[in-house]
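Bench notes, afternoon.
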Amino acid sequence: MEKKSAWEILSEKGRLKEADKLADSYIRFLNSAKTEIESVRWIRRIAEENGFKSVEEVKGLNPKEKLFATARERNIALIRIGKKPLREGFRIVASHIDAPRIDLKQIPLFQDSELALLETHYYGGIKKYQWVAIPLSLHIHLVKENGKVLDLVLGESEKEPAFTIADLLPHLAQKQMEKKVKEAVTGEALDILAGSMPELSSKEKKDKEKERVKENILKILKEEYDITEEDFVSADIEVTPAFKAQYVGFDRSLIGGYGQDDRICAFTSLQAILEHTDTEYTTIALFVDKEEIGSTGITGMKSPFLKGVIRKLTRLAGEATDVEEVLENSKGISADVTGGINPTYKDVYEIRNTPKIGYGISTTKFTGSRGKAGGSEATAEYMALIRRIFNQNDVPWQTGELGKVDEGGGGTIAQYMTNLGIEVVDAGPPLLGMHSPFEVSSKADLYSSYLGYKVFYESA
């Protein structure tokens, strides 16, 4: 089971320049789409530029047809119609486009010690201490009472104000540093600095009993953005790191940036469905929300979105086919990242079964925690199929699992795909610093993942 480096395989096949080009595009994507709404809009724009039409616009289905379907701007499916009838199933690569982050609460703005701050609630599994003392940006999707939609990003451009969570100075942090890491910064302590200047326009406002700093922030929000305090109630405001994705290392072989779990799989599966050749089976690239909190809700993998898409396709095809039959005849990949070996913390990994950075896409036969709880497991027959597809097409690949058995683990959307009857395996690139504000991936693994998803689409 000695595996070659993905770099060696790509070099032998003359694909290093292609890998460089793909990485450049990927960095642009990471810097353009930091939330699920931004990701869906970006994917839809690229799909339309490549000839995909809304499933609502067509009257019937023909082989080679390219379609897309969306739900609430947080889910999107790209579909290429194959030659075989839908009842024989489809090939699907599914990834999630949400990422661990911080959200604003519904009543976020308050004043304390002559500073304006914003109350937050973290989303997904984060190490809270990693989010203090770094520049942050606000990604605002706000719907006013009259239905008007306001989309606003603050902090991503040098011309815009950034935000931050102020940490405690080391001179006064003796008690803080004696605590366990998970207790040193609490969830309620993740308050974001929003301003410090008091409202100065009238004598009445100079009354010391007034919250003049908060009043000034509300004045700015109203005058510059037409946002009132009550408008926060109907807003999705996501807080992300303000720094940009970029190459890492002297050799530029690594990519650092926020949200690579799981937008690296979203990006590569998108490229794969755009570029794969005609196949016998219909192919689907599915992008879903809410994976980081259990795939719940109306836009998660547990929602009826995929079933609804299949139902529409069978109607358009004029097939008297049961949706469950289509799903049960389908094959899929749960495209999600895994943790690569971090040499600084080798004690939490079982080295023989942990993927290495730069060794290609990692197939994960089973997920879950400790005794495989809350996970999914591919059959031996399906693993043989995936292995054969990758080997026959010179895809750099490896196997892996998420750490030592008793250390932790985790799940993906694979379990919810199998609940629909789809045969599935997890496959995606390994990351360093997963769930941190600056995750690190390999350029070679990025390209290997794209190649793996592409040949899976093209398989019979």
